[in-house]
Amino acid sequence: MMWKKGKKSLACADWRRMKRKTRNKFSRALLILGLVLSLSACQNQRARRQFQQGQKLYQEGFFLEAIRNWEIILTSFPKSDYADDALHWIGITYYTDLDLPDRAVAGLSRLIKDYPDSIYAAQDLILIADIFRNQRQYSKALTEYARFLQMFPEKEQAPGVWYNLITCLFEVGEYKAVQVQAEQMLKKFPKSEFADDCLYWLGQTYYLEDDQKKAREYFQKYLEQYPNGELAFKAGMGIARSLEEQGYLSEAIAKYEELKQHYPMEKSVELRLESAKKRLQNKQAGVQIVPDKE
Description:
Layout: H1 5-59, H2 63-76, H3 83-97, H4 101-114, H5 121-134, H6 138-151, H7 158-171, H8 175-188, H9 195-208, H10 212-225, H11 232-245, H12 249-262, H13 267-284
Helix pairs in contact: 1-2, 2-3, 3-4, 4-5, 5-6, 6-7, 7-8, 7-9, 8-9, 9-10, 9-11, 10-11, 11-12, 12-13
């Protein structure tokens, strides 16, 4: 098809207009982007100065004044790179320096909600859970520990957080849940520093549920794997108490005697040993005495 001269000139003119229009739009976009970046950089500089002023006041012991400086960042520069720093330090200051845990939790919770990718998010979530645990608000602590494991399952703090969750479950008497969580933790982190404690708590929960055979199984596992562990004495006592609980008095006495040799300074062994001996004598004489369950 042949272009007529007039139509061809008109088409070229339209093309040039479109090209200029596109170039103008691109230039405006670059200008807007430049303004946004410039504004962001300016806000970051102002936020940084505000944060540093707060740090200076904090170091001088003016904690409330420091918090006020950091709060300005949250109201005036919430999109700056220092907003999460401000929230973190507000929470830390309320907790460690002003002894106001509820306000600390509020600040740290806001950080996790608004800035979940912050470098502080994981450690601050642990602190929230620890605050609740220290206040014996175990249900809230359990919620926060579980949230950490969901959000940060591969963090190096995960085994410790999981163990804290297990101990909170024990505190509220959720023994079945303790057993489930402890078994799962042992599978995922068999070499963690909390593995020995998990074995002990498994034995203890089965003892309290009166499943004495299972209790002795876990106490024995503890002693086999961690003969010099911090809970070795308690695990040994757990075995002896479990035997005594089921009426295996001769076996219990033998275990108490063994513990007495290994732990001569532990007065509780001597007391339990004498009690078991009296029970055996009474049993042989036809008198039934039920032992105290610790």
